[in-house]
Amino acid sequence: MLRALARVGVRYLSTRSVGYDHIDLEYAAGLGIAVGNVAYSPGSVADYTLMLMLLAVRDLKSVLARAAAGDFRLGARGKELRDLTVGVVGTGRIGSAVVERLRAFGGRVVAFDSSPRAAVEYLSLDDLLRVSDIVTLHTPLTGETHHLLDRRRLRLMKPGAFVVNTGRGALIDTDALVSALESGRLGGAALDVLEGEEGVFYSDCRGKDVGSRLLRLQELPNVVVTPHVAYYTDRALRDAVENSILNCLDFESGALHG
């Protein structure tokens, strides 16, 4: 696709996303194509992240399933965020917005980032995993962060801890996560992104094969999977379109000035 764009004279590509992981930047540069991303309201993903945390610690998937079936008995007791330690991995615009929202709940918040920038307690990644009751991922997907939560790091997490991912699916080794969940070592997971989501998310897959890993996750009562929709708000979409156009105009203006 990049070659085809270069052949018709495209010199600037604006992706309406924060992440670049779906574009081969080195190959694009070799073709003379510059690539720009967009910023949009971090509140869209931050709000959704908090919702997933609350959903996970209150076992809401099981509560709703029982209620829909007419079973209104009490189930497992929930947890309150003020009694928990939340570990935020990545404190860019979205991660920092998550940190700010968590302050209102009164619990301990710790963070890991290669470039600390937020007013929060920073720990090494391994130490963060050891102390956190909830780990939420907000770091870009790169060669260094691929499978950031691998089998070894998942074993470092507290028994009964929860994983929330609204970043990129491949930040987690999904097979290792499934094993940790099925064994009962982890308390649950809330995932808005997933490895191999391409061709599945944003499609009507009713009656189709969506892959064994997704099926295994969906069958677990303590796992919630949503189809990469955390960003999907009116404000965020307006921001993405506006900033994409501004990026193109800025590029054109720079080119016209040599």
UniProtKB/TrEMBL annotation:
Keyword Oxidoreductase: yes
InterPro entries assigned to the protein according to its UniProt record, in alphabetical order: D-isomer_2_OHA_DH_cat_dom, D-isomer_DH_CS, D-isomer_DH_CS1, D-isomer_DH_NAD-bd, D-LDH-like, NAD(P)-bd_dom_sf
Keywords for the protein's UniProt record, in alphabetical order: NAD, Oxidoreductase
Domain (D-isomer specific 2-hydroxyacid dehydrogenase NAD-binding) ranges: 50-230
Recorded family membership: Belongs to the D-isomer specific 2-hydroxyacid dehydrogenase family.
Superkingdom, taxonomy of origin: Bacteria
Molecular function GO terms recorded: D-lactate dehydrogenase (NAD+) activity; NAD binding
This protein's name: D-lactate dehydrogenase
Pfam family, one: 2-Hacid_dh
Matches recorded under PANTHER family: 2-HYDROXYACID DEHYDROGENASE HOMOLOG 1-RELATED
Domain D-isomer specific 2-hydroxyacid dehydrogenase catalytic span(s) in chain numbering: 4-254
The UniProt record lists the keyword NAD: yes
